[in-house]
Batch of 2 targets.
Target 1
Amino acid sequence: MQYLSTRDSKKNFFVFSNVLLEGLAEDGGLFCPEIYPSVTLDRLQDFKRYSYVELANAIFTDFIGEDIPESDLGDLLKKTYTKEAFGTEAIAPVEYLKDGIYLQDLSSGPSLAFKDMAMQFLGNIMEYELGRRSERLTILGASSGDTVSAAEEAFRGKEAVNIFMLTPKEGMSSFQKAQAGSILDTNIFNISIDGPFDVCQDLVKEINADLEFKKDVSLGAVNSINWGRILAQVVYYFKGYLSVVDSVGDAMDVVVPSGNFGNVLAGYVAKSMGLPLRKLIVATNENVVLDHFFKTGIYEQRDVVVTSSPSMDISKASNIERLFFDICGRDAKSLRQIMATFEKTKSIDLSGYLYEIQNQLGFSSGRSSHEQRIEAIKEIYKDCKRIIDPHTAAAVHIALDQQEKAFPVLCMETAKPAKFEDTIKEALGFIPPRPQAFIGLEEKKQRFYDVEANASSIKEFIKSHI
């Protein structure tokens, strides 16, 4: 399997390990596999008897090829997907809620967010690859909430890696902020930025575009712009599907809370491989850029609204470039023109592709208000005795509102409710119980660095701390 950049008309190819450590392509594009491997229904039937590690191994091998020895890959997966890390041997288990709606638990890892499903593997495989090369890596990332703690949990204490995470000063829950700030390992640097997540994300891209600096500090990425993150997330769509359908080949819908478009992109990749997902339903909050796009074909950046589901408070979804690449026929020149227009005008009209997006690729969408998420939390607790967080509630609200009874619907649980106590208390009248390890979290010592929101200041900070 080879990889190429979405913006490279010359189609230079890379192997998986290079893509993993590079993160963002030198031309500013995102890496994509040359093709999506095909999974037949017979092979999918075989997958039903696989453990999560075996399933991950089968799917990863299709995307990695001989770049990493099969025995080494197997060892890395066994090291990653453990009961100790994720709370159960099942890994990403599925439970039935009501009315044909199911919930997949993706947030029982160390940071209580779905990001752990990929980030724990990324930490292990990056450490392995750096060891093979006798190299070091400087990771620069951005987060609106959960990515920061998931990344830092995955890379804390890893001697070959320093990790710098940019987060907005306002918008994260007190739990999320304390969770990140209390990780005090010497290779962890939390940088607070004035402005929303989009500012943090733009700074990461701007700094990556400085190729001399990138080479000088060996800069990599762990946001979902890194293909390794997307690949690891593909696996749980296969697990979820096989846990829900009565017969392999039956159709199923998925509803995914979405901000940066990485999670649902992994569902799109799984569908492109042949997994019988009928609809990929993108759930948004009051930040409706993605909902507007999937309804109209017009992708338009807007001001960010701070909401009770902060990880979705994004107005510019990095990963959507990979979808644009596919819908324009993987024509890098066309893609560069699309992205240049967007950077200049903050809006692009792809309505000519809307029929394909909706009817051939299967994308749909919906939005939720704070009040609707509160009602979804109340309803699921009343009927199912299950507490869901406000991001998951965005998906459940849309599943309840849009479901077609002939098809089961799988909602992705993307975070644990303990991370959003104020919202849960508003909905249910009580604070949800915390896992033992997080009791008294906000009282722990925290460390953040205030750095001016410009690339030069951040680059200077990075250089002085590696």
Target 2
Amino acid sequence: MPPGHDDAERPAVVKSADDVSAAFSRAMEAAAPFEPAPVVAVAVSGGGDSLALALIATDWATERGGKLIALTVDHGLRPGSDADARRVQGWMAAAGIACHILRWRTTKPQANIQAAARMARYRLLGDWCRANHVLHLLVAHTLEDQAETLLLRLGRGSGLDGLAGMPAVREERGLRIIRPLLTAHRSRLRTLLTERGKTWIDDPANTDSRHTRSRVRSALPALVDFGATADRLAGTAATLARARAAADDATAALLTASVRIDPAGYAVLDPAPLHTAPGDTALRALARTLCTIGGANYMPRLVRLEALLETLGRRGRTLHGCRVRPWRGEVLIYREAAAAEDAVPIAPGETVTWDGRFVVRLGPDGPWTRDIRPPFQVARLGSEGWRAIRKTVPLSDAVPALVAPLLPALWDLDGPVTVPHLSSWRRAAPLSSDVPVTAEFRPPRSLAGPEFAGVVR
């Protein structure tokens, strides 16, 4: 039998409620290392999956001298969501678990509300963890969630990266997102809660046929007659995860040979290694470069990526929030101006993220604040700003002229004050001292990234 098709190679599926804690411990062991007396956060919606995870995880943390912190997000999308969040907080308190309510307060979009809510949820959870120096965030995706994800991505025509499903561990800036229940059935988790005398909240959105995932969920039972059980679908994702890990290694080697990332947020690419590499590896390397420079968390569509690779080095294109241009015998990849974020307010002593790619820090009040007019904001320098200063920028500070207008700049009421990546330039008098501002390129996806972590068996 070909490798990867033997049932022994599939993840060990949790068959009873008694097995859930053991499976959780195996998954956490695979996700090691953890610090002594680990402090771990868990996302708790109030549903059965996340409540069960919280109860299991607090036992695990306590046994190691650590503690668990619960985080629940109130999206504000339906009446009673605030009451549900406070109910979850009460349940956690009864279990001896501190719980913080995080609220999504920004304007809600009219379309793609589920996707927007998911992005907002992870942003709120991640920001809280980073602000409170918590390195590990547990989320309660189950075996059925993995099966649904495979079907969703199959329907969208995803390639290997998508069909590998959700990783057991995903590393982000200053945070690891861990999914320790990917081998557990929802029914086992609810049995565990029932045995402990616990209740949970059933979110009506999970059965709302307006949402694609809900329709896929309701269709799963009909697939059993064809052998496509949740176990087998999740097992297929696990097999493909191993293939993805191997492909990631080949992609990383190609990136090392062909791509240079500049701290100013652009890439210079040698197209020759990509044109001679296996097609899939070249496409993956190009996609990762676009994601890094464009600040995207998802891959570009395959058909557009293939068209870009076909003409790479010969003509310019725009894709995935990036401009791709032939440049001095190589290829310059930089941010698309129309896709860059508008201004973000910043005050002395604050740190903000601009355009999802740069972490900008402004120093505390000092003599410099007397010479410029607040309020301050971070925005791109812009073409007009670049034309105004380019003759005063030394060659040692130079970046490609195509890139310079996209650099983050500190602005006051009179215009750009300073550009951190052009460190020798600042606005002329009345500035009497340097402005303490830095901008670090920290996109959500690094170029090579950590190895894809499949499901532990």
